[in-house]
Design goal:
There is one protein chain. The protein has 649 residues and is mostly beta strands. The strands form 6 sheets. Strands 1, 3, 5, 8, 9, 11, 12, 18, 22 and 25 form a 10-stranded mixed beta sheet that branches. It is elongated and about 90 Å long.
């Protein structure tokens, strides 16, 4: 296996981004085009970019035996791998998995949390894809339907409280190395009045098939005392990258949400907020909702106690929050061209708006209207679908506020909240190297490669180990020893400067011995530094591949080549992990004993490699080594840097 970053290759073969269009005017609902659909239970949306793949999760039935307040009633929380539901077509989360929230019990968090799922054995129809390689999918939309016990679609969505979908930002940032950094774990919320979220033609969210998502299906009953049993069915609409017909632009997202001050609103804190944003109205004051979640109250950097669920007294009331780096890091760091916004509000909301605050002026950029029916309780009948193929620009380095208005006509206090999922173009996104696996891609000398990020000890290779590697003899301690008994310091002199390596046989004796004796034999001289990723690693090419290049490996060095075992017995997470500057041994996916000479230097932590790759030392952190590493990163080119000489220190 090769551990490299195909950044340059990817950039040269994927010019699939639609040009940025900057628009200065606010887009009203009249010139925003939503993707409409009129389809029955399982008919897909008519997306134009390529063949659509659907995947479904059906949850329930939920037993609704009385009316519930918001955040109460039955729910099912489940963690699933995207590739599993795509392969399964439809999976079923049975009634036995549901959890009831009654009389102020603990409900799933508004802005994300872990799964409360029961044992996976209860899930029906699930096909596991642990042995499949990672692939790229494009999420085009989601839809939630309410079914009766006979699986007939009900005409209204009154029995939905919400459906939340959360991702793992750290994982996405590891597998999508080129593109906007993922900051928000909430990808989507579907609720009454807005049961579909779709993205305009030419835009979608990139997804790795082995991503783990958390879905929360929460049923609601705020309209009737009649006993009901209903199911929720969510349909995902994907386009596989290999099925694309037209180019597609990646969307990234932020999810700002309104929080109100419930105490400690000192004059100093309010003044500091005003100084940072003179034209902002500032964070509103409110009363914490009695049925708020356990983690729904928090303290901000100014010492104020905040709540994301608050009480709406009778009458009309407006609440707002400043969007800043404390709650949405990087939101205003660059201009954003927004194409889709979903809204998560409670009944009685009349409007949710995003404002640009510049100097002494406030300008409304995005506005979403909602309607509530109170004739039989509380039900959101409609939330406007903000969807624009043309897009609207959010200027960079200005202040923003999210504002919501509630009209409480029930004459009694009600609970409320407000959040918005804002999806914008990511022109920096590039397909990672693992997308190109199996497509005769040759880098790092002539070896076809896979990506170290997606490898796991049990994962098969998409590209098999070359026969010449298989034919090499395995390292024999008796014949190929003696093994190193103490740590060694090596200087790699590259054409960019020196790199100091510390090789420690106490971590992986066979691996350390193999690399050390190859280094000392001069085998690595003229070997390229073949791949570099600023948030992952620097890789040294395999010396055996030089036989196919201008400077072949000597017969003496060639005689030292051996296949070495995967030595991870001492590399438990609590004892040894793949931290920044560690040295690790490369190997092919399909054979753990296929490591020979290629190794990597981590330039960022990569705990996902633990137990899958052998650590045998670390890079020195002396000024000269760090300067060399910095130079390579600033001016990276896969054909520019190589090892000139090696020597023991």
């Amino acid at each position: 296996m090769n551990l490299g970053d195909l950044k340059n290759l990817v950039q040269s073969v994927t010019s699939n981004f639609i040009a940025l269009i900057f628009i200065s005017a606010t887009i009203s609902m009249s010139n925003v085009s939503a993707i409409a659909s009129s389809h029955d239970d399982k008919q897909s949306f008519n997306f134009s970019e390529g063949k659509v793949t659907t995947a479904l999760i059906t949850a329930g039935p939920f037993d609704l035996h009385r009316r519930y307040r918001s955040m109460e009633g039955p729910y099912i929380s489940y963690d699933f791998k995207v590739g599993d539901i795509v392969a399964s077509k439809e999976i079923f989360l049975p009634e036995g998995m549901e959890v009831f929230v009654e009389n102020g019990g603990t409900a799933p968090s508004m802005m994300g949390g872990g799964s409360n799922q029961t044992m996976p054995r209860e899930v029906k129809g699930l096909i596991h894809t642990d042995q499949d390689r990672r692939t790229l999918l494009w999420l085009k939309g989601v839809k939630l339907e309410v079914l009766d016990e006979n699986d007939h679609v009900l005409p209204t969505a009154e029995f939905i409280c919400h459906w939340n979908l959360d991702v793992k930002p750290a994982f996405r940032n590891q597998v999508f190395t080129d593109g906007e950094k993922c900051e928000s774990l909430r990808l989507a919320t579907v609720t009454q009045g807005q049961t579909e979220i779709t993205f305009p033609p030419g835009y979608a969210v990139p997804v790795a098939s082995d991503e783990i998502w958390n879905a929360v299906f929460q049923a609601a009953n705020r309209t009737t005392d009649e006993h009901r049993r209903v199911k929720h069915r969510c349909t995902f609409y994907f386009i596989k990258d290999q099925d694309l017909v037209y180019p597609i632009t990646a969307l990234a997202w932020h999810v700002p949400w309104i929080h109100v001050v419930i105490d400690k609103n000192s004059e100093q804190a309010a003044e500091e907020e005003k100084n940072n944003c003179p034209s902002c109205l500032g964070t509103s004051i409110g009363v914490n909702a009695p049925n708020n979640t356990a983690n729904g109250v928090f303290t901000d950097s100014n010492g104020r106690r905040m709540s994301g669920h608050w009480v709406i007294p009778p009458g009309t009331h407006t609440y707002g929050s400043v969007i800043n780096d404390e709650f949405e890091p990087g939101f205003a760091s660059k201009p954003r061209i927004v194409h889709t916004v979903w809204s998560h509000v409670h009944p009685l909301c009349s409007n949710l708006s995003l404002y640009e605050c510049t100097g002494s002026s406030r300008k409304r950029l995005i506005s979403v209207g909602t309607k509530t029916d109170i004739s039989h309780g509380l039900e959101i009948k409609h939330i406007e679908n903000w969807n624009s193929e043309k897009g609207i620009v959010l200027p960079k380095k200005v202040n923003y506020e999210l504002e919501v208005t509630y009209k409480n006509t029930t004459h009694v206090p009600q609970d409320s909240m407000a959040a918005a999922g804002i999806f914008f173009e990511d022109p920096t996104f590039a397909r990672p190297e693992w997308v190109l696996k199996g497509k005769d891609t040759y880098v790092c000398s002539v070896k076809p490669v896979t990506n170290i990020v997606d490898a796991a000890p049990t994962a098969p290779a998409a590209i098999p180990t070359p026969q010449e590697i298989i034919d090499l003899p395995a390292f024999d301690k008796n014949k190929d020893g003696p093994l190193l008994t103490k740590a060694q310091s090596i200087q790699l002199e590259t054409n960019a400067g020196p790199l100091i390596l510390y090789i420690d046989p106490g971590l992986a004796p066979v691996t350390a011995t193999q690399v050390y004796r190859l280094l000392m034999s001069g085998a690595f001289n003229d070997t390229r530094l073949c791949n570099y990723s600023s948030n992952f690693m620097l890789q040294i090419a395999a010396v055996e591949d030089k036989a196919k290049e201008k400077s072949p490996i000597s017969e003496t060095s060639k005689a030292l080549l051996r296949r070495i075992p995967l030595e991870v017995s001492v590399q438990k997470p609590n004892r040894l992990s793949h931290h920044k500057y560690t040295l690790g041994m490369a190997h092919y996916d399909d054979r753990a004993d296929s490591g020979v000479s290629s190794f990597f230097i981590l330039v960022q932590d990569a705990p996902q490699l633990d137990r899958g790759y052998a650590i045998f030392g670390k890079l020195g952190e002396d000024p000269a080594t760090l300067e060399t590493l910095s130079k390579i990163g600033k001016d990276w080119n896969p054909d520019k840097y190589w090892i000139v000489d090696t020597k023991a220190l």
